[in-house]
Amino acid sequence: MNNIYLNLFTTFFKIGAFTFGGGWAMLAIIEKEIVDKHHWIDRSEFLDLIAVAQSLPGILAVNVSVAIGDRLKGTKGSICAALGTILPSFMIILAIAIFLTPDTIKNNEVINRIFKGIRPAVVALIIAPVLTTAKAAHITWKNVIIPVGVALLIFSKLPFISNPIVYVTLGAVGGYIYYVNHQRSKLNGKKEDSK
User: Fold this and answer.
1) End-to-end distance of the chain based on CA atoms, in angstroms?
2) Based on the domain organization, do 91 and 38 belong to the same domain?
3) Are residues 123 and 178 in the same domain?
4) Is there a single domain that holds both residue 167 and residue 114?
5) Mean pLDDT of residues grouped by 10 in the chain (195 residues)?
6) pLDDT at position 12
7) Cα–Cα distance for residue pair 90/60, rounded to 1 Å
8) Residue 50 belongs to what domain range?
């Protein structure tokens, strides 16, 4: 497909149409499409993109699609990718609102069974990108305490401690400190080599 705008739209439309369970459930399919199939970005860029998209307000899948569209074709690309992500959900919700009432959905045995069947698949779709992201971020048994500890603190519901913004900020500060120290050690290594 030569038209990159159409390619962006159809790729993200397909992702939006066939993924249930929200942004994290979509990540495995997004990664497969944009990293493995289309090669629009590499895996390390994808990991950085997830970190940025997760820390921004809004829907994770839309944030990712906007970033990919912008990287490939600027504003027009981001609009095409975002529309592709949003339209399937919008059309499904519109159809449900037109043809089904809340009581019909609640009392319909077929719909209830469909949702019960989808639940385990959604759990698997969420676990898959978590494991892939952990592997790409070099999470090992030595440093797994950081994400597990942060998750437990967020779930604690304690004031201030359970606020995710605190950990995003601490992560950014920690990353900056690590970067500065890493740059210093590289400079010191070069000075030692030149002697």
Assistant:
1) 56
2) yes
3) no
4) no
5) 84 85 76 91 87 82 92 94 92 83 77 81 76 77 85 84 85 89 82 65
6) 93
7) 16
8) 1-138
- Give yes or no: residues 120 and 55 share one domain: yes
Exposed/middle/buried for residue 50 (C-beta within 10 Å: 0-12, 13-18, 19+): buried
Closest C-alpha to 69, from 117, 11, 111, 130 = 11
Q: Are residues 39 and 24 in the same domain?
A: yes
Query: Do 72 and 48 fall within a single domain?
Result: yes
Q: Are 24 and 128 in contact (CB under 8 A)?
A: no
pTM (predicted TM-score): 0.65
* Residue reference for tokens 């919700």: 93
Residue with the two structure tokens 């209830």: 112
* The pLDDT value given to residue 1: 45
Per the structure, the count of domains in the chain is: 2
Q: Where are the beta strands (DSSP E) in 117-188?
A: none
How far out from the chain centre does Cα 55 lie?
10
What span, in angstroms and rounded, lies between the C-alpha atoms of 106 and 96? 12
Could you give the 3-state DSSP secondary structure of residue 17?
Answer: helix
Q: What is the token pair recorded at 79?
A: 């609009």
